[in-house]
Amino acid sequence: MRTVLLASDHAGFEMKKTLLAHLESRGFDVVDHGTHSTESCDYPVLAHKLCEAVKHTGCTGILICGTGIGVSITANRHAEIRAALCFTELHARLARRHNNANVLCLGARMTGTELAGAIVDAFLETRFEGGRHQRRLDMIQQRT
Ligand code: RB5
After folding, report:
1. What is the pLDDT of residue 144?
2. pTM given for the model
3. Ligand 1 in contact with 43 (CB < 6 A)?
4. 107: CA distance to ligand 1 center in Å?
């Protein structure tokens, strides 16, 4: 059984709930790292927490805030995290194939729930191609 880690701020809370049910209906185990209400909170706290969990478990993570921008900036401060903010299924497939992204970022105020589900499915079902793309990922790491 594959496990997926989820976290959002208040702006992404409703989308997180929907995606959690969506993932469970597809047979994934889901660990919800919060937030647990629509009460205002700070996205960096949730994003750092999820990234630590991704690092420790090796599981794929999904982060949601209003635009997806704040969580993606935060997540990419972690050297082991390759976070991709995706607005289409093609973004999600290429983020996996070419960038081996291990965290998907979504903007709940930008992307409809149905499309978000399709983006999640595309991200989770696509594998990294390796080869020349691995060389480029190694070059990213050399900067850290
Ligand atoms: C919260 O209002 C909003 O700023 C946050 O969800 C996110 O969009 C930040 O990038």
Report:
1. 55
2. 0.97
3. yes
4. 9
Residue 5 Cβ contacting ligand 1 at under 6 Å: no
Q: Is 41 a catalytic residue?
A: no
| Cα gap 28→140, rounded to integer Å | 31
Task: Give the model confidence (pLDDT) of 71-122 as tens digits.
Answer: 999 999 999 999 999 999 999 999 999 999 999 999 999 999 999 999 999 9
Give phi and psi for 3, each to the nearest 5.
-110, 135
Mean pLDDT of the chain: 97
Structural domain tally of the chain?
A: 1
Indicate if the alpha-carbon torsion angle 118, 126, 36, 1 is positive or negative: positive
Give me the domain span that covers residue 15.
3-141
Mutate to test the pocket of ligand 1, among 15, 16, 40, 67 (most ligand atoms within 8 A of CB): 67
Look up the CATH number of the domain holding residue 123.
Answer: 3.40.1400.10
Residues β-bridged to residue 31: 5
